[in-house]
Design goal:
The chain has two domains: 88 residues, no CATH class; 70 residues, no CATH class. With 208 residues, it is mainly alpha-helical. Helices cover 61% and strands 2% of the residues.
């Protein structure tokens, strides 16, 4: 039974690796795809050993954390804040990180102005709390916006389906037939006129 379980686990890992390799090929190309996926596994393994400790379930770790692409932004090429096609830092992730830093500085300045007599730890705790609240509110607003977009898309799709179903078959425009070129029928050839053969003359025949 254990041998069957190991075979099933191996098939799962192989299928997941092939799927991710195919995905990476679409960005990095066939030649570099294996190296890109290998660097991802090394990067994830280093992160796991540095922050999470030893791996107790290798199959589960590979399927859930080691192999899958981790998009940190809306760019389909993004994987751990790197671009799969170039290996460079993802510019959208850099912009988001810069926005977070600016937002943190703004919140900290607001807290410092509102709590001049508080200690550094108290101001830091208040800034973290306000930052979490602000990020949560922004997340809810973004999700609400996307829900509205999805609702409009679903309504438009349903409207098109209803319009197509309500259109009678007679309203479907007929496909015009291509004009047929007239066929010229050749006139029958006149029959050859055969001249009657001349009758032989009865010359030199005399009556008795």
């Amino acid at each position: 039974m254990a041998r069957l379980d190991r075979a099933a686990d191996r098939r799962l890992v192989e299928a997941a690796a092939r799927s991710e390799l195919t995905r990476v090929k679409g960005f990095a190309g066939r030649t570099d795809a294996a190296q890109v996926l290998g660097r991802r596994l090394v990067r994830r393994l280093d992160e796991q050993l540095r922050t999470g400790g030893p791996i107790t379930d290798p199959v589960g770790w590979l399927l859930a954390r080691g192999l899958p692409q981790r998009q940190q932004c809306g760019d389909a090429r993004c994987d751990d804040r790197m671009l799969l096609d170039s290996g460079q830092d993802c510019p959208r992730c850099e912009d988001r990180q810069a926005d977070r830093r600016a937002q943190r500085h703004a919140v900290a300045a607001t807290v410092d102005a509102a709590m001049p007599g508080a200690s550094a730890d108290e101001r830091r705790a208040a800034a973290d709390r306000q930052l979490r609240e602000r990020v949560t509110a922004q997340g809810w607003a973004r999700e609400h916006k996307w829900e509205q977009v999805r609702a409009r898309q679903a309504a438009a799709k349903a409207h098109r389906a209803e319009a197509a179903a309500a259109q009678p078959a007679d309203d479907v425009p007929a496909v015009p037939m291509a004009p047929v070129a007239p066929v010229a029928i050749p006139a029958p050839s006149p029959a050859a006129v055969v001249a009657p053969a001349a009758e032989p003359e009865c010359a030199g025949i005399e009556d008795d």
